[in-house]
Amino acid sequence: MPAVRRFSFCILCVIAATSLRPSDVSAEPRPPNVIVILTDDQGWGDLSLHGNPNLSTPNIDAMARDGASVEHFYVCAVCSPTRAEFLTGRYHTRMGVHSTSKGGERFNADEESIAEVFRRAGYSTAAYGKWHSGMQHPYHPNARGFDDFYGFCSGHWGNYFSPMLERNGRIVTGNGFIVDDLTNNAIEFIDQHRDKPFFVYLPLNTPHSPMQVPDEFWDSFKDKAIIPDPVAANARQQNLIHTRAAMAMCENIDSNVGRLIAHLQETDLSDDTIVVYFSDNGPNGSRFNGGLRGRKGSTYEGGLRSPCFIRYPRSIKGGTRVTHATAAIDLLPTLADFAGIELNSPKPLDGKSFASLLRGDSNSWSPRLIFSTWNQKASVRSDRFRMHATGELFDIENDPRESVDIAGEHPEIGKELAEALKGWISETNPRSSRDRETRPFTLGHADATHTQMPARDAEPHGGIERSNRFPNCTFMTNWATTDDKITWDVDVLEAGAFEVEMYYACEKDDVGSEIELRLGDATLTATIDIANDVPLKGMEHDRFERAEGYVKDWRAMTLGVMRLSPGRGTLTLKANRIPGDEVGDMRLLMFRRVGSGG
After folding, report:
1. In whole angstroms, how large is the CA radius of gyration of the chain?
2. How far is CA 194 from the centre of its chain?
3. Domain 441-596 class?
4. Helix/strand/coil (H/E/C) assignment for every residue in 451-463
5. Euclidean distance between CA atoms 371 and 387, whole angstroms
6. Percent of the chain clearing pLDDT 70 (strictly above)
7. Strand ranges inside 12-80, DSSP E
8. Distance CA 204, CA 83 (A)
9. How far lies 32's CA from each of 126, 202, 358, 514, in Å?
10. Which of 46, 175, 467, 472 is the S-S candidate for 154 at Cβ 3.0 to 4.6 Å?
11. Average pLDDT over residues 170-194
């Protein structure tokens, strides 16, 4: 054998032997990383991929090209129920969620979250953005399985440019436009946790109002002609300025999605990372929505159908289309399926894995019904039909706009779906968003160093008023007499000593009020001796006049150390002396555990 051929042969033998080492053959592939991007108030039609002629979303559109488009994917009519269903794989009606603020957004503490499932399997976990599922432990994201949290826990926020946020319970200041900032934090977490699988939840808070977006995105929209949806009546009622702002915000989201995926590619993590993209409800305005009927708050298709794209180059073929009806409740079992995580949930899931559909195998899929309810409205969706509690029946396959009620033509189908919907309502007993929350706000959880008691969760008494009718980002104002008070219904979970701070604003002429905080036999008194004379802010960034309230730059003052005993009671904040016209404005109380009970 010639020398060159003998040399080549030997090299091939070495390569073959090396590639077949037993250690390599038996090595288990690393589980996939997971990133879930959830946008806020972005409708089905707010993407160029879905035919909207008013904007361009090339990076989100590319997720469908490079992965799967889940074409009939359903969420809830408003924010917090969708979050609860995604996080648990169960219908929000089973878990105490019935409102979007003042405690009704919390899903029960005994539910298991998707972060707990993945952390138990060895994943590093993080959440960056709008939580909207409870602020105090055991409802806080750090108590729900997320190692790191940065963002806000309320349903909406009052300022998107370097706002007051929190990191793992501590109050911090954001860095620049909030969606850019949240994406930066996700990228940093990915870089810091590449040594083992990670699960990143990125619940972005746009295009929810207030309608704020950086100039570089707004400038191309502020004078742009908007083409209406030619077939949907709700889109013809649109406010053009609001629509322009929403489109600019969607393009900003798209830019950040592009940055995130580009980073995965640059760091060789792309093939082994599942990226999910969806929204929490229909659009927050009357605008183009692909001809669908309804918008946010509706249980018609336009309020419930969400864009959903799943990118996982290792296992999902580019251009995959999933046409069966699926929902937010399905994401937990689907992602666990891809990650090889065996689910041992303490409560039965309502969702089911559709990983087989994403892999191109529809033979093992059994269609089922998907139920939706909000504010005494309800409907049920099969693969072909949607039946409403009103008795309306629509053939979504042939009439996605829900324009022709066919209940009279298909009485048997209508009867079957109506009975299923009635049974589900009876079983899960949905509450109305008008119901008052009866669970107290928790304080002193053993695992919580910091616990916020915001104005959002309080009740004003006397002349005190909430700064806006939408509670989430409000403060208490018009605090002018010693008869006025602010109260919280709290349950102290474990005894302890807590340093208490109050975040406030106070004009120079009103300095000197003595305030008292009381819970049971524990009392603190302190005097406001430093002015925080600051104006309302937020309007300087608004592209459209908001319905929500404005915010301030709050100052923290220490009230002292309070020793609390376990049990339910009324936390009361009042003034004993007011030398000026009023005490000031109150945004929140922060309790920091500094000692154990006894």
Report:
1. 26
2. 25
3. mainly beta
4. EEEEHHHCEEECC
5. 10
6. 95
7. 33-40, 68-74
8. 12
9. 15, 17, 15, 56
10. 472
11. 98
Q: SS3 sequence, 431-475?
A: CCCCCCCCCCEEECCCCCCEEEEEHHHCEEECCCEECCCCHHHCC
> pLDDT tens digit string along 238-257?
999 999 999 999 999 999 99
Same fold? 33-368, 441-596: no
Higher pLDDT, 475 or 437: 475
Domain 33-368: CATH superfamily is Alkaline Phosphatase, subunit A (3.40.720.10)
Q: How many residues in the chain?
A: 598
- The residues spanned by each domain of the chain are 33-368, 441-596
Cα 355 to chain centroid, rounded: 23
Evaluate whether 286 touches 234 at the Cβ level (below 8 Å): yes
* Buried b or exposed e, range 507-531, using 16+ CB within 10 angstroms: eeebbebbbbbbbeebebebebeeb
**In the block, residue with structure tokens 């810091």:** 192
Of 179-188, 385-394, 428-437, 448-457, the one with minimum mean pLDDT is 428-437
| Residues ≥6 apart with Cβ < 8 Å to 497 | 561, 562, 563, 564, 593, 594, 595, 596, 597
Q: 69 near 310, Cβ under 8 Å?
A: no
Token pair in block for residue 26: 């038996």
